[in-house]
Amino acid sequence: MEIYKNIETIDLSLYLRNSKTLIISDLHLGIEESLNKKGILIPRFQYGDLIKRLERIFNKVRVTRVILNGDVKHEFGEISHQEWKNILRLFDFLKDKEIIVIKGNHDPMIKPITDKGDIKLVDSYRINNISILHGDKILINLGKIIIIGHEHCAISLKKGIRSEKYSCFLKGKWKNKILIAMPSFNLLTYGTDVMREELLSPFLQNIDNFEVFVVEPNENELSKSLYFGKIREIKEI
Q1: CA–CA distance, 218 with 195 (Å, rounded to integer)
Q2: pTM score, whole prediction
């Protein structure tokens, strides 16, 4: 679905058609090992799911550049064995494309991994009038269009007493610029319910007029985005 001119939602990613660039956000690779250390037993399926999703995307659109928009790893103060292994495996999987890693708030220790993979590590990245940054802090000299992650955008929809949480994209205005907020590419981290929870990103303050694009879950095919209107309209319903 085209969310803005030449910007498409594909599964849980964004595709910049003119530059053949794919943006994925908040992978949190290594989260299973982190949870295991806390006594939460969860199978380590995330990396395999990530590669399957990317393969489906690459079969649909031509991608020459991949931007990992922050929180590539999960641990704050160390690099776990699973992070080392899976991030380097991801870099190898993407070796025929230009790879840009944008540093997120979970990535203070990622430089040894990007150095090992000879990958460019930046605080933000600009393509013409589009600025891509993680979204945990406001930077200067931003383009007309801003794309952020960090929030892990999601929304809870109710039917009777039943409530389900879905990943979603948000599109609205920040000052005089177009702002697009992305969901996490990791299905373990649905993130913030933008209707009910306190928002983390300083870019997302008053979002009542933001439009919501819900990602329809699909395990075997690319997930599609569905337009749900503005947040204030959903609240009224």
Answers
A1: 23
A2: 0.93
Strand partners, 61: none
How many of the other CB atoms lie within 10 Å of CB of 146? 22
pLDDT tens, position by position, 93-102: 999 999 999 9
Handedness of CA 105, 24, 210, 122 (dihedral sign): positive
Residues of the chain by 3-state class (helix, strand, coil), percent to 5: 20, 35, 45
Beta-carbon contacts of 125 under 8 Å, excluding residues fewer than 6 positions away, are 67, 100, 102, 131, 132, 133
Instruction: Decide if 144 contacts 177 (C-beta within 8 A).
Output: yes
Q: What is the pLDDT of residues 135-175, one digit of tens each?
A: 999 999 999 999 999 999 999 887 666 778 899 999 999 99
Give CA–CA dist 85/155, Å, rounded: 32
